[in-house]
Structures
1.
Amino acid sequence: MGLFSIFSKKRDSGLAEINNSLYEAFGKVKQETSSIFSWIRYLRDKDIKNDWSHENISYVLGEHGAILNQLKKDVEELKIMSKNQVRTGSDPDPGRIRNEPKTYRNFEKNIIEHLRPNRKDFVLQQMLNLAAKKTFSTKQIEKIIVEEKGLCSRTTFYDYLRELKHKNLVKITDFGAKKALKTVQNDAGSD
């Protein structure tokens, strides 16, 4: 039994070494696998964020492209209008556009006179339309009405806004993280 116990001890120590080596190797493999999965999660999250950023940038660029196209059209229209409205210093009637029949000028004057009294109602309606969307702040609506559309001055805009608030047609409300202007009818309809 002595010889058998010597071989048995050698075999047991060899198996123990193999077992320890395998245990260490699998521990390293497990550690590497965990590290790889951490990198995969990190890269997947970055990819999702990049996709989201790309979509937002594409959307904003599309909006800017549409605005630029509209501005180009407006510039072209202004060029055409300015060509038609060239005035000379020797013109006896400086209010009259060159090569324009006097009857056309009277017609244009009559139309403008009819539109002026309705201008306030038109601007108020534009303000109410924007407020009905419940997504624009007062400053954004001011920018649209005063700067972009040129419907009235800033002072007049705030006078009209006070009038709408006084008549309880609009109010300021929370819209997410910002304050938005909305119509009171929308508020009553959502309750």
Note: Confidence is low (pLDDT under 50) at residues 88-92, 186-191.
2.
Amino acid sequence: MSSVNDINPSVDLTVRIFDNFYQSTIDVPVNEYDVVYSFFQSVFKDPASAKNLAAVFFRISIATGIPIETLMTQVTGQTAIQVTNTLAYYLNGLRSPSTLLGYNAVATPNSYVARNVAI
């Protein structure tokens, strides 16, 4: 999904996140990336998941306009399930309503509408 290209610290102090799926590139400060990546690595224990979630976290920050520090204070101290729910909340705000994340309930139509639909 996404990959991280660490830049030479003597030349540039940013991390460039490449997202091949969305064909996008995000430049973020190294210190912010390290904080976010280490948080996700401590919560999820899988380096690949932590790397992908850090990239998604920065996409959420840019898309919503919420500073990364504010988002980090919201998820600090949460369990893995709570962090997943928080990320699903923000991602659902960016996605189409027909492709919401984190919902298992089957949508049942109104009975008056359902009987007018021919199968």
Note: Residues 47-64 form the longest helix (18 residues).
3.
Amino acid sequence: MKKVYDNFPNPSQKLEYPCGTIFSGKPTFNPHGDQYVLFKGAVITTGADSGKYPVQRVVGNYEFKFQLDLWCSTKFERHAIWQEFFKGFNNNSSAMGLSLQLTEYFNTFAHYSITDFDFSDSEEQSQRSEWRIRVGILVDCVAVIERNESLIETIENNVETPETIAPPADEAEGISII
């Protein structure tokens, strides 16, 4: 790709082939009933939250679609670009798609999957030398919240029991409950 645009090209805009355009859709949030802890940080020693710990919890996941348009100068170039793109996007045969780490979002991973594609062929497009592939991509990533919380620490029990236990006191000496 020579260039990637974040909007649809204007009719008078001269494109540098091959190029791409990306449009994102509206995200959907799906809450999880079974939240889990992703990370617990070190105890906070100063300020209002002193004695608490920063805790990151996965509370759901986000899904959104975006459309990637790959623009080419010829049908042949379009076919070659599609083959290369598809092979590169799905280079792991055990899990189709891409999983990319989001280093600025709690180091979680987002998974990208191709959901559909379309080779745009019409008389108008061929007259404009517009050879395009529309690719629908679904993105899925976890939703994380971070807040400072008090933690219950694990208490280690070191109570030892003797090998023999003394027999109970004689009933006559004890207290009788009637």
Note: The mean pLDDT is 87.
4.
Amino acid sequence: MEKILEEIQKDKLINKYLYQYTWLSGSGTKVYPICAKYKNNKINEIIIQINTKRNYFEKLIERYKGKYNKIEYGYFSKTDDSCPSQLVFKFKGV
């Protein structure tokens, strides 16, 4: 799954819309542009902060799902103005 994370970090479309800064959530949780969440010492979710509210990512999500069967699903989450939109990939069996 680290290979998938590395590929995502280099993806041209993601980098075009990647939020370029960290930001504070709540009273002081630092949120990075690309975050990997772990469960049982394995990545079970990748969350990417996006600087657009438009969903340009459906084909990208399908491409990654087709290439990596470990991805259970992905989605774009348009949020309110209190935080950036997100692109999320969830992994199977973790």
Note: Strands lie at 23-25, 29-31, 34-39, 42-50, 71-77, 85-91.
